[in-house]
Amino acid sequence: MARYCDYCHSYLTHDTPSVRKSHLVGKNHVRLRMDYFCNKARQTHKAIFGKKKQDLQARRRARRNSKLRAAVQDAVAHSVALHCDTNRQKRHAHRTSHPVPEPIGVLEQLYRRAPGYAKVFRSDCRLDTGQSVRFDRLPQRANRRPNDHNRGFARARDRTSSPAVSSGPGSAAAPSGPATASRHTVYAPDYSDAGSTAQPAPLLPPPKSLAMWPTAPALVYVNRAPAEAIVRETTRRIERT
């Protein structure tokens, strides 16, 4: 007689081990068996699984309302009277406040112990923002020592000053006013600043390439001789024919 399955409520085709095994691992049998045990669990534990959703929501709502009510009562018990500031107090607070905060030196804190920290984060050690540039207003390559800016201005004034036009043979040339360095002022390097004031250092010798410059042959950019010779030869042959 064919085997009967209590979960599926159906008979097996054959009562053999292979058929029983294939039926027990089948999807339909597993699903029906799972539903059977789930229903049994709901019937057994009716006190836990039989609660209504509305009752749970009402209980949660009551608990939440009680917490809010307790918080409101606590706030009312510790309430403090608030008074807004007058316009005079607001103006005084606005004047005494610092709207622009101090710069956050993240990079300065990061590179504080770096070898070249002073060359970047110290204004008096930087070549582009040093004391000499602030006094001379010259490019970075023309930096001088901070105590030599007056002497540099005197030299620049002597170089750029021009005598006044003389009105007669006995009139003396009146020097012009002090000339300030501007973007049109041609900078002349002064190598004597590198030495001491008593014994200035000698000027650097010119490079060897400039010594042979006057003896070098002139450059010829375009030589029209070959083209003219070709034109003459072609014209002569055409005239012969």
UniProtKB/TrEMBL annotation:
Composition bias type Low complexity, residue spans: 161-182
Pfam families: zf-U1 (PF06220)
Biological process (GO), any one: mRNA 5'-splice site recognition
Biased composition (Basic and acidic residues): 136-160
SMART domains reported for this sequence: ZnF_U1
GO molecular function, one term: zinc ion binding
Domain of life: Eukaryota
Chief site of localization: nucleus
Annotated stretches, region: Disordered: 136-184
InterPro entries: Matrin/U1-C_Znf_C2H2, Matrin/U1-like-C_Znf_C2H2, U1-CZ_Znf_C2H2, U1_snRNP-C, Znf_C2H2_sf
Subcellular location: Nucleus
Annotated Matrin-type domain residues: 3-35
Keywords, ordered alphabetically: Metal-binding, Nucleus, Ribonucleoprotein, RNA-binding, Zinc, Zinc-finger
Any Gene Ontology CC annotation: U1 snRNP
Protein name: LAFE_0C07668g1_1
Species in which this protein is naturally found: Lachancea fermentati
UniProt lineage: Eukaryota, Fungi, Dikarya, Ascomycota, Saccharomycotina
